[in-house]
Amino acid sequence: MSIGKQLKNARLSAGLTQIQLSKASGVSQGAITAYENDLQNPTAEKLASLAKALGVPMETLLDPEAIAQTPEPDNRLHGNSGPMQTHKIVLQLSPEAQKAVLQFAKALLLKESTRAHRQRKKAA
Questions:
Q1: What CATH number did the domain enclosing 33 receive?
Q2: Which of 49, 29, 36 is nearest to 1 (CA)?
């Protein structure tokens, strides 16, 4: 179940409206609507605020299937590796900028995989 559905279920179980949850958590009602409709995912800080306002552990709001599919960390990373440097830089960005970087990276990955698929098809 998605974070949005988990959030909505927890909010309804607590007997709160989106407006009440917004006031209790400090997260805007518009953001809560977007999360519940799976249009956006909350930042870790906002997820923590929502969980606290709902009186549930933060893990309750996370998607258990997504957690199970999260790959194990690559223990070969070190402080000077490209991925680690990228990670350190991205963490310094605002949440909005982090989302933009992620969208850009996904677009590059899609472009590369499409190019590789075409090359394999052409070679066959």
A1: 1.10.260.40
A2: 36
Provide the domain limits for residue 8: 3-69
Residue 120: predicted pLDDT: 76
Q: Which residues of the chain have pLDDT under 50?
A: 66-68, 70, 75
* pLDDT at 8 (0 to 100): 93
121 φ/ψ angles, rounded to the nearest 5 degrees: -65, -40
Place of tokens 């989302």: 99
Q: How far is CA 96 from CA 25, 33, 37, 47, 63, in A?
A: 20, 18, 19, 15, 22
Q: In the structure encoding, which two tokens stand for residue 39, read together?
A: 């249009």
Nearest to 40 by CA among 94, 4, 90: 4
- Per-position DSSP letters for 32-86, written without gaps between them: HHHHHTTS----HHHHHHHHHHHTS-GGGGS-HHHHHHSPPP-TT--TTSHHHHH
pLDDT of residue 65: 59
Whole-model pTM: value is 0.53
CB 93 within 8 A of CB 101: yes
User: Is 95 part of any domain?
Assistant: yes
